[in-house]
Amino acid sequence: MKKIGIGYENYKEFIDQDLYYIDKTMLINDIDEHGGKVTLFTRPRRFGKTLALSTIRTFFELEYDLEGNVTDNSRYFEGKKIMGASEKILDMMGRYPVITLSLKSVKQPDFRSAMLQLRNDIIAEFNRHIYIKDSEKFTDAEQLLLKELLIPKRMDEIKTDDDLRAEIGRYVTALKTLSVCLKKYHNRNVIILIDEYDVPLENAYFKGFYDEMVDYIRSLFESCLKTNDALEFAVITGCLRISKETIFTGLNHLQVSSIYDNGYEDSFGFTEEETVNMLIDYGLGDRIEEVKEWYNGYLFGKTEIYNPWTVINYIKNIGIDNMNYPRPFWANTSSNEIIKNMIWHADGEMKKELDNLINGGTIEKRIHEDITYDDIYESEDNLWNFLYFTGYLKKVLVHLIVMRHFTMDISYRFS
């Protein structure tokens, strides 16, 4: 049996190490055919968003080996569904410079340390493209700017708030600068991939510097996604769609795909057929009904989807490590701060609704997607919507949702 890739998020590792992989490569084709100039995918945590972006990068990126030769990534897609796509799509393989930025590490306790972490992540992406810095294609001013962005200020040089603003201000347009230079170097537009864009926002909300973080992320996105003639297309992932009026101001070419929408339903997570096939592959065909009872899926659009983190942990623990009983593996995979606050501040009516959910019932709520963290506690409806889009609730019929995987001191299972 192939090794199960728990914790693996790099597509190349799945292929190089021959890990068990459920083929999601047609997302590449779907983005080209149906995606916008900027496409935002919002899915709950642990649904393969980072792996999806890694797959996209592996397919499109023009890469070089240590000797400066262009590498051929086609071997990573041998036998995969994407190889049955049109010649137009296949001709795009390995043709584009790609900028990739993950914001999942930007969750420090204060604005200063969070912004310096974001700065360091941007510098790391500059270093990944360091081969361009001395190119004769650039003017002296462009070469100087690239070299300056590669050298951050030392911590002892950032003493005051003004010093911090000046330092992080240098990097607010850095992704645009890098994309313009990459286009000039390669004579081809750039693909930008941004992962877990809302992690800094959630962290900043609970740590007390939300407005400052919103302002910076908005400016960063406006620069590289709105006023960037070097952009071919961009893909962004996160758990929650933050209202267009705050983060995505002016991005009229933004296309959003959430768990409520049709389209891309099977691109993140496992379908029921994929889940059943994986159980059979690991000799657990007799436990299909148990998996359905415990983990009977979310509804993405109109398609039932299983959380991949739950499925692969179930198979490893039951089929390989011989654990005798299922567990709510998705629970406690990140902070439940909002849930705790919800219970703490719940009024009598909300407590009744929670009791109803815990006992296997349903509640009816109106769904709306444009939520900011500032809005969460303005009304109970906002809070229920937040829980739905971040994976704590499941839509069972139109406008009907039930609680899933809610955990505080005790783990509960909801059907």
The total beta strand count reads 11
Class inferred from helices and paired strands = alpha/beta
Specify the CATH architecture of the largest domain. 3-Layer(aba) Sandwich
Largest sheet properties = 5 strands, parallel
Q: What is the class of the largest domain in the CATH system?
A: Alpha Beta
Roughly how much helix do the residues carry, as a percent range? 40-55%
What's the CATH topology label of the largest domain? Rossmann fold
The shape is globular
Order of strands across the main sheet = 2-3-4-1-5
Rg measurement, Å = 22 Å
How much of the residues is beta strand, in percent?
A: 5-15%
Write down the overall mean pLDDT.
88
Could you give the distance between the termini? Answer: 31 Å
Low-confidence stretches: 398-415
Whole-number tally of structural domains:
3
Oligomeric nature of the chains: single chain
User: What is the helix/strand order?
Assistant: HHEHHEHHHHEHHEEEHHEEHHHEHEE
Counted by DSSP, the helix tally is 16
Structure description:
The two termini are 31 Å apart. The chain is 40% helix and 12% strand. α8 packs parallel to α10 (210-226) and α9 packs antiparallel against α10 (210-226). The relative contact order is 0.12. It contains 16 helices and eleven strands. It has three domains: 25-257, Rossmann fold (3-Layer(aba) Sandwich), CATH 3.40.50; 272-320, no CATH class; 337-403, no CATH class. The strands form three sheets. The chain has a five-stranded parallel β-sheet with strand order 2-3-4-1-5, sandwiched between helices.
